[in-house]
Amino acid sequence: MPDGTTQDAPDVVTKMSPRTVDDTVSRLTQMLAAKGMKLFDAIDQSAEARSAGLELRDTTLVIFGSPAAGTPVMAAAPMSALDLPLKVLVWDDSGQTKVSYYAPAALAARHHLGADLAAKLAGIDPLTDALVAQ
Fold this sequence. Notes:
The chain is α+β, with helices and mostly antiparallel strands. It has one domain (about 5-130): TATA-Binding Protein, CATH 3.30.310. About 40% of the residues lie in helices and about 30% in strands. It has six helices and six strands. It has a six-stranded antiparallel sheet. Helix 1 (about 20-35) crosses helix 6. The radius of gyration is 15 Å and the shape is globular. The model has no long low-confidence stretch (mean pLDDT about 95).
């Protein structure tokens, strides 16, 4: 794995961002727009916790994808719709912003995807590499 990348939870990739949670989320949404990808939602989970009178570290779930890429995957493996669209969790861990997501190879294995369909999920790795780059 590249420097600054960990895999603490099985099948989850975590990368360190040099930016705050808000700045990382903003950068990610801008990158998605520039690539013509669909941003389905960005859920500020810490804000939702506050609205319920609870505390949660800065935590935002960004849900995005490309219907042109995801649809063939879901057509071939209907249960993959539980994992699609793709999700990236941007969260604060004691002052360090982390970017976590399910490893595309793990998703491909879980849904028994061939190489052609697995490749449709693999773009999340270079996207997040660019996201956390200085």
